[in-house]
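EI: anyone free to look at a 178-residue chain?
SC: sure, send it
EI:
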Amino acid sequence: MSVQEIAQRAGVVEKTVFNHFPVKEGLVFEADPPMRGALLDAVRQRRPGLSAPAAAGGFIVAAISQLGSAEAADGVGEMARVIRGSRTLQVREREILGALTDALAAEFAVETGTEPGRLEPWLAAHAVLGLYAGLLELARDRVLAGAAGPELVAELRARGRAGLALLQTGLAGYAERR
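SC: here you go
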């Protein structure tokens, strides 16, 4: 969708759109996604005995599974079409995911008292946000295929929990050659 089309749909001139959103990606993505704060809070406010990656992963599974609800389906489908139709938006989405990964890795480092430059917080954050990216794409694919409602919410939750279980138990036995 072009900026001109956006302006026409909004009933304003193109210049007005650019005054409020200097780059097209600003029309789709917020500068500081609300998920960032909520994700970090899930880690900071987790119950005793729950690992930081498990808290972050649990938050992600709960949040993404709701994208399968009938109420969310139209918005999820429209966002999927818009993002998948724009290379610029795909790049911006990856940049946002990268920044979110950096923020989560920094929080994991604080939580564990890890010295700067260690790989573990970064690796754990990437794994957890890989779960996020995979579930988000699954939600988009399923909604675009016409699925929505309690069944899709349950499917996303089950697949998310299975992915989180894999992360929590480690990859040692995954895809082992027999």
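EI: The chain has one domain: 24-169.
SC: 👍
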